[in-house]
Specification:
It is a single chain. α11 packs antiparallel against α13, α15 packs antiparallel against α16 and α16 packs antiparallel against α17. The strands form four sheets. Strands 1, 8, 9, 10, 11, 12, 13, 14, 15, 16 and 17 form an eleven-stranded mixed β-sheet that branches. A four-stranded antiparallel β-sheet has the order 4-5-7-6, with helices on one face. It is of the alpha+beta class. A hairpin with a 5-residue loop joins β2 and β3.
Amino acid sequence: MKKNKLLVIFLVIAMIFSATACGGGGSDVDKESLTIGIDSDAVALDPLRINDTLTMSILSNVYEPLVRMDSNSEIVPALATKWDVDDSGKVYTFTIRKDATFHNGDPITVDDVKYSLEAAIESDYTGPYMNFIDKVEIIDDETVKVTLKYAYAPFLALCTTYSQVVKEDFYADGGESMSKNPIGSGPYKFVEWAQGDKLVFEAYDGYYGGEPSIKHLTYKIIGNSTTASLALESGDIDMSLNVGTADVQSLSEKDGISVLEQPSSAFYFVGLNTTVDKLKDVRVRQAIAKCINKENLVEGANDGYGVVTNTFIAEGLPGYDENFNPLPYDVEGAKKLMAEAGYPDGFDLKISIPESRSKHAQLLKADLAQIGINLEIGIIETGKFWEDLENLDYEMMIMGWSYVVMDPDVGYYSLYKKDDLSGNYTGYGNATTDGLLEAGRTASTNEERAKIYAELEETVMTDAPYVPLYWRSDVIAFNSQLEGVTIPPCGFYFVYNYKWAE
């Protein structure tokens, strides 16, 4: 009997020790390593071939831009140690540091800066954000002059994302190797990409700012948010960018785990492929928009985390109208529109989504059933999802979009520009909307821009290629021993600033 009691005591002690050692707040973390849980895979590892926030966040650690944005939304030096702007607001002169190198050891030169900016202008992905650049000139071996077509206030802020420096030689094969086996210029260099599983990087000891404190960086793909939370609690990951709203409270109560939450500049929406026969009719698209219960969706799919929206214009930006709602929730009105379009009994429709949006899709399925639409849910691997969008090989989808700079042009141009494969995945657009986009870019006052963007939003949202759903709340959770973690303004988590507590 005494032996049995001792055995029980031993087992209890062992269990307590195991829970402490393996839990998210355990003291035995590898202080040279960091594993971050993400909800989907990267699209590509080439900064000239991406425009989704998650991949850009990863690559912000791998490539170095001219300037960076700090946690207070201030523009700070990176490859450019300083810059000047002339009185016209169109000419920027950058002084480039001479102590920066690529991950293969090659020095970063003004020629590389010129090539990278010109390539960004030409890229289908980054071009919509940089094609207002007129020319790039090398002044001397540390000075680059950039002339814009017109004064464009968001330019420097856009450079924090779209001026990441690459080398022309790396694209000798057309960029295939850069997409999968990149040579970067930032604090972390590429090691491995096991697609669908993980991306692995290691600290670059030649980084001009000094080698990062965290030597080994892994992004672990965990599509299910509950699984990600369990992985954080067990210590399998150290930080989760995929925190399910249902798990926020329980994670907040766990010893050794910290949770941060704040409103986001990202929004979610339904996209409708306007090249599909049954979705070409504006009445059908309007009917779909009018039968989606957005409040119910935020509550049911997001546990109330998120703010319902009828527009993509963020509050405070030119053109914002808090009362804007051209297609209010109206199921009976939606039924009439379907009948007018020749579909009184509805039809079959397929929605394409990544796994993380399955709850959203189930709620949408119930909403659309009210007007006779039988929604088939197709859960698709991340790479295939983006490929299908680019090829317009889908019918209906859900996706998120984020302001990389708080300006309506940055939020809109790529989404609305006709035939822009870097963001307009609906096939929608015309001379009127394209004209308004260009006018919004070049207008000289906020009053002019407000009128332009209000008209643009009225036009697009009434035509309904998109159905705005909600503004996201950003929530992350991480091991409390990890220092320097904040929710960055535009969602780019810069690991170089992190370190483990001593």
